[in-house]
Amino acid sequence: MNSSDDKAKRKSKAELLLHPVRLKIIQSLIGRQLTIQQLNERMPETPQATLYRQVKLLQDSGLLRVVEHHQVRGTVERVFALAEFGADLTPEDMRHASREQHMQLFMQFIALLLGDYGAYLERDTIDMEKDMVSYRQAGFFASDDEVRELLRKLSSAIAEVMANEPAPHRRKRTLTSILLPDS
User: Fold this and answer.
1) How far apart are CA 70 and CA 67, in angstroms?
2) How many CA atoms lie within 13 A of 96 on its CB side?
3) Which of 54, 73, 90, 100 is the most buried (most CB within 10 A)?
């Protein structure tokens, strides 16, 4: 194992996800398998050298894995996927993250959300009703068991649509959720 492998292994998952390019790579791979070229098409603002470097770091850390190899014009093209539970912060990850890291992760999450919403608003034409864009906050009363059941149902429903392949009649959509107890 070389020194970059050692550095990747020593970084916590939270530290790895705090980098905006790495977080976008992880988000791009949720529910799909992509090559570096396909990642580059999804992240045109990211220099290709940066993309290669960050994908390598995520692979060395065990968050990404190579699932296929293709021979393309004399080189081997790798297809990447998230390692099982690769993007998920485990309860142990959450316990070991400092308050500052939790705040940084949340701010990074919100910054990406703002960026996505800003990009939507920059389109030539927007139709929030037709595009089914919404944002709202809903307060409710529930026991811990009722919340666990709600999350199980939501996870199941979301996993079902995340398995959909791109098709002419489908648009990529993003569902964002934040669950917090009332202070």
Assistant:
1) 10
2) 10
3) 54
168: left (phi over 0), alpha (psi -120 to 50) or beta: alpha
pTM of the model: 0.57
**Per-residue pLDDT, 178:** 87
Q: How many CA atoms lie within 13 A of 113 on its CB side?
A: 12
Closest among 176, 18, 9, 7 to 102, alpha carbons compared = 18
| pLDDT tens for each residue of 53-108 | 999 999 998 889 999 998 888 888 999 998 875 556 677 778 888 888 888 778 77
DSSP state of 90: P
List Cβ neighbours of 55 (8 Å cut-off, separation of 6 or more): 25, 36, 39, 64, 80
62, 83 in Cβ contact below 8 A?
A: yes
Instruction: Kindly state the DSSP code that residue 97 receives in the 8-state scheme.
Output: S
Cα-Cα-Cα-Cα dihedral sign, residues 140, 146, 149, 151: positive
Is the CB of residue 54 less than 8 Å from the CB of residue 19?
yes
